[in-house]
Design a protein that fits this description.
Length: 372
Amino acid sequence: MTDTTSPGDATGIAAQDGAYARPAGALDLRRVGAHPDNWYPVALSSGVRGKPVAATFGGERMALYRGASGAVHALEDRCAHRQVPLSMGVVEGEALRCCYHAWAYRGDGRISQIPYLPKGVGRPPRGVRAYPVREAYGLVFVFPGDPAQAEATPLPDLPEYSSPRHRTMTYSRTVRCHYSFMHENLLDMNHQFLHRGVVGRLRPQLLGYEAGARSVEARYLFTHAGGRKNRGAGLLAAEGIGGSNSADVMTIRTEYPYQTLTLVPEKSDHPVFSLWVAYVPEDAEQRTCHVYGLLMIEKPRVPGAMRLAWPLIRRFTERVFAEDRMAVEAEQRAWDEQGEDRNHEVFPLILDVREVLRSNGVPLKPLARPCG
Ligand code: FES
Ligand SMILES: [Fe+2]
């Protein structure tokens, strides 16, 4: 990993001509798919109970269900018989039974029963694909790629999630944009103008950043330059993010395919909160992603303060998120209208994260068109 920002360079803005464009011959980033050989959350654990639920990764539809043992299984969401979604079926013990002719499937996707087929008659079809599943941090993760890679691919390590000193706020929602817009949005803190109505005038200063083959990490110093300050933001940062005399250090990291953000207030040596996010493409063209976020907040020392602060923090983060969503969805609409990426990016670390996302992703397959 190399430090790509020289000490005197506060902005990191590239000066040389030609630094703004996509590398010659490089694939348009918005046509690059998220690499399937990773663990992706596709549902909240709390949403997978007695009934099967439909989930998706990049146009691959899955049926999730929790068997009697408590384990969650993920099957291709189509019955091998007549392609009816298995997510419309019913759970029986550890099996999932299709709603139509009642074929039953094991958690490994193999057919366990065709009720009306006498024993020994014919050979049952092969069944459907099963995906490796893990449950952690209140999320159901699946491994949509090569199952042989699943075991050796680690889940994210989030010790704060189960630490008694922290409480976690969970986010789950769909945003209508390619996942790369989300990475760029969070890493480029020069967009604080967008949030001026919510957080006041925050002045971010890039302290430096490092880029590697799979990651980009940026550190910003945040100072408040006046204007409105939000109570939610203040509570979130304990002393107040951008409080009148404060200078907080925010570290944002894309480590493929996830993103994290931590905030260390001035006069502190550890983060007051950490955010972990995954952007999971939903449709085959990956122009829509599902955002799963875990905001792990250190509990204040005053008993009960967290309970009081909780709704304010929720409201503040939702307002900031709504503004970000407005911007990234507008970016996606522009891409859709123009049919290509015509951005003129001037911030080197964003050029670097684009390269990380491009080189670690996979080209999107052309869509199969229905015949007829
Ligand atoms: S379509 Fe599923 S059992 Fe017939
Ligand atoms: Fe933002």
